[in-house]
Amino acid sequence: MQTVNSSPVPAKSDVRPVLEDEIRDGILAALPHLRAFAISLTGNVERADDLVQDAIVRGLHFLHQFERGTNLQGWLFTILRNQFHTNHRKRKREVEDADGVFAAKLSVIPEQGGHLEFEDFRLALAKLSPDQREAILLIGAEGFTYEEAAAICGTKVGTIKSRVNRARTRLAEILGYDDIGEIGPDQLVRAALRQG
């Protein structure tokens, strides 16, 4: 607190806007009308009460935008109506799932399995010869055609096909896969081992 002429002056953070009697009385007088309007919009008393509360809170928050001398009740009705439409648009995108039936049907592949598979694949990839590793990464991971990979490596298309085939066979051996169907959800592993 600062003092000026020995009378205390509140610091800036202590100053709160005072709700004028006229505004307070106008809000209180509008409440029953706002509630009736909200019930007619929502068709539900609880949602209507929430809507009125939201409208009043927003009105108080934006009170500095209210033009004195204009219709306070009309201004609050506009806020309530806009809030109703905002909530309505939001609800249209939401699916009500009170008993959890929809949530129970959702599934997410666990990330740790894919991470472990990727780490195993990375270690197996490191065991390939540099030529085989380069060829399988260009074809399987980067998505180049055999012709494009051959041009990048400065070799023939048949050589690239041979390197990729040997790399896939070797990776399957290292990783212990007998069949491509045994590979989990990791797309990089699946792409690299896919038969061309």
What does this protein structure show overall?
The chain is mainly alpha-helical and 196 residues long. The protein has helices spanning 21-42, 45-61, 72-93, 101-105, 111-126, 130-141, 146-153, 157-175, 187-193; strands at 2-4, 7-9. It has two domains: 17-93, RNA polymerase sigma factor, region 2, helix turn helix motif (Rna Polymerase Sigma Factor, Chain: A); 111-193, Arc Repressor Mutant, subunit A. 65% of the residues lie in helices and 3% in strands. Strands 1-2 form a two-stranded antiparallel sheet. The protein is elongated. The model is unreliable at 1-16 (pLDDT under 50).
Outline of the structure:
With 196 residues, this protein is mostly helical.
